[in-house]
Amino acid sequence: MILFKELRALIGARNPDKDAMFLSMLAGAITNELFGTRNPEEKFETFREENITVIEQELHGLAQALPGLRDHVTDALRIQTLCDSQAGYDSPANLNRADALGILVKDREIPLPSTFMTSMRALGAQYGLIIPPVMITPEEDQGLVH
Fold first, then answer.
1. Nearest to 62 by CA among 21, 3, 107, 14
2. Using alpha carbons only, how large is the chain's radius of gyration in Å?
3. Please, are residues 13 and 36 in contact by the beta-carbon 8 Å criterion?
4. pTM above 0.85, yes or no
């Protein structure tokens, strides 16, 4: 989500003539392409096909455009690959692609899942994507208080 938000802002700044829907779809398509999670819905596949050149250009410039996210993207891709492996899928293709694009930070240690989750929660909080937990009473939890 953070990569998506950063991409949308970056692309929007470079393309002020484009509408919000186009910017969101392009940012989503780039994010999906990087993580190998293309949306199979027809409108998204059509958008990808019509804009593959722009998607590829943005991917090739991603490391330079958003250097502050490289570590986090590297960790996310590695954790994704680890999870895929645990589920029986061999998916080093995303890591190889990120490496070829200059996004992957090769000498970065692979995070433990708990370390990854802690760092992602902190990053999510920085971006306002995580709402801190609120203490509620047992009565509120049971819906007895309005």
1. 3
2. 18
3. no
4. no
